[in-house]
Amino acid sequence: MKTILNILILLTMAFPSKAYRYSYAFKDTPISEAIVRISKDHPDINISFIYKELDNYRTSAKINSDDAFDALRQTIGLNPISVIRKDKNYYIEALQHGKFKYTGRVIGSDNEAVVAATVMLLAPNDSTVITYGMTDDAGRFSIPCDRQGVIGKLSCLGYKSLMRKFDTFSVGTIIMPERAVALREVKVDSDNAFLYPDKSIYLPSSRQKKASTDAIDLLRHMAIPQIVINPIDGEVKANSGRTIALYINNMEASKEELQGLNTQDVRKVEYLEFPTDPRFQGAERVINFIVQEYEYGGYTKIGTADEILIGFSNKSTLYSKFSLKKWTFDLYMSSNNKNNHHNGNSTEATYSLIDNSGNNYQLKRTETLENSHLKQDVFPVTLRATLNTDKIQVRNTLGYTHSNTHADNQSGILKYDPSNGKDYTFSIQNPVISNTCAYNGMLYLSLPKYLSLNITPKFTYTHSNDRYLYETSFQDEAIVRNACEDAYWYRVDATLSKKINDYNTIDFGVNGGEWINILKYSGTNNYHDSFHLGFAAALLAYNYRNQKINMNARAGICHEPSRINDITDKVTYPFAGLSFSYSPNFKNSFSSYFEFSTSTPTIKDRASDILMQNEFMYITGNPYLKSYSMFGAMLSYTWIPSRHLNISAYGNFMESFNREVAIYKTSDNVHALLRTFENNGDMISSNLGVSANWKLMEDKLQISANAKQSIFHSTGIYNRKLYPFTFYLQATYYIDNFYFQAYYQSPQKILYSSYPQTYNFRNLHNISMGWSDSHWNIRLTASNFFNKGWTVAIEDLDTKLYSSRANMQGTDTHSKISISATYTFSYGKKVSVGNEVGQQSGSSSAILK
């Protein structure tokens, strides 16, 4: 820990010694807006200009200067605008005035925007230059000029110059063919990462995009220093462990949707903290993939992935997209199939019980897994339609998923100590069938007076049949638990955003929804349950942002009524958060946040049913379980000294007060124990770490690492402390169409809050190689080849009446070989490949496990 602290201190001292008086980074900003910003930041200089004249021109200039005149000239760039200086007065004027203006868009033969092309307007009789302009980042131009019938001359490095007559002011789309000339190899050492107060922007290289199979894989190749990716399920989180919402072109995307992304169409990846855009629905952290959009056409993407040496595991997917003008239609289908014999637990447990004479005694009960079988099929289908215009975005998604766990069986040897000299057997069967229907909607309106409104309704319904059978040769009567459940969930979020000026934004949000579970148990225990958990909340947020500072303050109140059968409850609580970011330049960024929130126990932890788990254990929930308060804080520093090195140091703290914990006590049947839940003690978890990404050999070799020291401290009836250190290393090498990657994650130790078991997870490692071109991506991966056996983790629990040690077995950490292939083909005019529709998740279940 001392080493990491020293590294953090050194990193915080890494500020550049030079601070320019005029330091700005504009990105496709109207020049009028850019000059207003400079004028407000420096009231000692007088700038005179006509706002509407300059609004036709845009700038993406990076400015670092101590001279006002030089800063203004850098802002204007090559646009036809004059700057005249007289003492401390600056007069800025467009060289050409006009009531009308010529507008259009310039693209290459590959349908990509031609950026920074010069568009000259020439007199038709003698070809003298009337005025000129330049295309922006999207290839658009807008040039004021009242003269009709002019000749347009377009030129840009790498393209053939064009001349054509402009008969109308709206000239449409112009295609410039590439110039077929042999050029010497040019090495460009441009920046690929930029730090702003409210976001970080990363530009993926062509090698990274070409080698990646989907959006998550692209993040893995990019190795963004502020995030960490779970190597098993692909979950993306911040270094602090907080959830990150994933978006494509400002629209929410599921993990399955991201699998269909053609990474070669990704222009940039944004990492945002507390974004003000209402389409992000108040998310604290967002990864937003900016993907090229197209006018019309379609594409289909087919993928398959298989794992061998662990049984049968296959996932096949089909994506298809068709766009026509402002409408886009998506279809997603998938088949996920598993069939293996390596899932289950071997558990050694000690029970403190009472015998028939009323005396206390301890019983050691050991289940040793010998055989298991897991067979599961999941078939999702989803349809989506999206309307996207300048002022409105509408999206409707319908999904259906059929899931059938044909077999989830375990069997083995059962032993007792003290015993009668006999060994027994046990077996578990738990097949589950579920069907889910889901709807997700989105309506975004860009309103006058800098107002915007975002509304997102969501609804899911899941019907499931869960059959559980537990048998032992120790008892004649089996434990039978058949659960039939109808689970409903709906939610509506609405956010109204008001941009006061360039620096201040206010958001007002309301949301509400409910979880409803209608559940019927039959068999050993018979219950008919009706669970309801609703919520309604209101939020007010204020955001201040300038060139170097971003501050967000939010506060709200939430009301949660609940009904667990005949037991009703209501709770109302406040929540608040404050974040502050400081970015003095593109190379350095500090970020911090503080929050006060409340966590509500799930429905299944509050269920009142008492179910038999084995001959010495019953399980139930607690309908009187209370919500508990939480306080969190985070501080991070990101440093980009060069395009070849990115470093991020971070620390975070989270404490839960009087939180929910599982407890074990003597049941009404004194010969067994009862597991339930109570509010007891506090839980503290914190992390201190550093991550880095280093590129070598002209970016052909990339090495990334993340090291973290964690602290877990539980108080109350579970008074425990844990200080694990974990790290991961990743190396990637690119050569032509081939790529090679190696990954290692050290063993992990985790102490969870509600279930205070200690989990010791095994290491993960893999080596992969792949080949890719514009259509195919084929990959071969060898994973965990140094790991023996099927152990995934060891779970330890120690309480006054019950202790256990479980060997959790599965396929995640066992040696295996994975083979995957994807093929993408398009038809018609090239279309945006990204933002694909995916499998819709189901409603949360209340079935006790």
Low-confidence stretches: 1-18, 182-188, 830-840
Rounded Rg: 31 Å
Strand content: over 45%
- The shape is elongated
Kindly state the percentage of residues in helix: under 10%
The first-to-last residue Cα distance is 38 Å
Helical stretch count? 7
Major sheet details:
29 strands, antiparallel
Structural class: mainly beta
- How many runs of DSSP E, i.e. beta strands? 55
What does the average pLDDT come to? 87
What does this structure look like?
The chain is mainly β and 849 residues long. The strands form 9 sheets. It has a 29-stranded antiparallel beta sheet that branches. Strands 15-16-21-22-19-20 form a 6-stranded mixed beta sheet, with no helix packed on it. A 4-stranded antiparallel beta sheet has the order 10-9-12-13, with no helix packed on it. A hairpin with a 3-residue loop joins strand 53 (791-798) and strand 54. The chain is elongated and about 115 Å long.
Quick rundown:
By secondary structure, the protein is mainly beta. The protein contains seven helices and 55 strands.
Summarize the SSE layout with pairings:
Elements (H helix, E strand, L loop, with lengths): L1 H11 L9 E4 L3 E2 H11 L4 E3 L2 H4 L3 E2 L2 E4 L2 H9 L4 E6 L2 E6 L6 E8 L9 E5 L6 E6 L5 E5 L6 E5 L6 E4 L4 E7 L16 E3 L3 E4 L3 H6 L3 H8 L4 E3 L6 E3 L6 E4 L2 E2 L2 H5 L6 E8 L11 E7 L4 E13 L3 E13 L2 E14 L3 E11 L5 E29 L3 E26 L6 E6 L2 E16 L3 E22 L6 E21 L4 E20 L3 E19 L3 E16 L2 E19 L2 E12 L10 E5 L2 E4 L7 E15 L2 E12 L3 E7 L6 E7 L3 E14 L4 E14 L5 E3 L2 E11 L2 E8 L2 E4 L6 E4 L2 E9 L3 E8 L7 E8 L3 E8 L6 E12 L22
